[in-house]
Design goal:
Number of strands: 3
CATH superfamily of the domain at 10-73: Winged helix-like DNA-binding domain superfamily/Winged helix DNA-binding domain
Organism: Paenibacillus oceani
Region (Disordered): 109-129
Pfam families: HTH_20 (PF12840)
Keywords: DNA-binding, Transcription, Transcription regulation
Helix content: 40-55%
Strand content: 5-15%
Structural class: mainly alpha
Number of helices: 5
Domain HTH arsR-type: 1-93
Largest sheet: 3 strands, antiparallel
């Protein structure tokens, strides 16, 4: 591992729902850990550990302002995730295209009559018919 590579990768960092919530919280503004902690039912130490993992992955930056540490979102590392997901988009696009084709083909073969709901019939539990 080189000195410039993160200790944690983006995929590991966002794997935890708490860390994803932290990122969401930091989207619009920089916040001190005391304010961030008030949004979570855990200790400030636990929140700080999550922030450290996000920081190690390059997803948040911290800066000292007096005695407090403030955190802000760094979205650039999320591009790695976006590129990875984009590769798999073609599979979804293909499946959605096939589904669209099947639905449209089915609609073209249906008569233009109103659809009547099917009424459930009472069954004799001893009958196998």
């Amino acid at each position: 591992m080189t000195g410039t590579s993160p200790k944690h990768d983006v995929f590991h960092a966002i794997a935890d729902p708490t860390r994803r919530r932290l990122l969401h919280l930091l989207v619009d503004r920089e916040m001190p850990v005391t304010v961030i902690s008030s949004h979570f039912p855990m200790s400030r130490t636990a929140v700080s550990k999550h922030l450290r993992i996000l920081s190690d992955a390059g997803l948040v930056k911290e800066r000292k302002v007096g005695r407090e540490t403030r955190y802000r979102l760094e979205p650039e590392p999320l591009l790695e995730l976006k590129r990875w997901l984009a590769f798999y988009d073609r599979f979804w696009d293909n499946r959605l295209s096939v589904l669209k084709h099947l639905v449209e083909a089915d609609d073209a073969n249906e008569p233009e009559t109103a659809v009547k709901p099917i009424k459930p019939q009472a069954m004799d539990p001893l009958s196998l018919d």
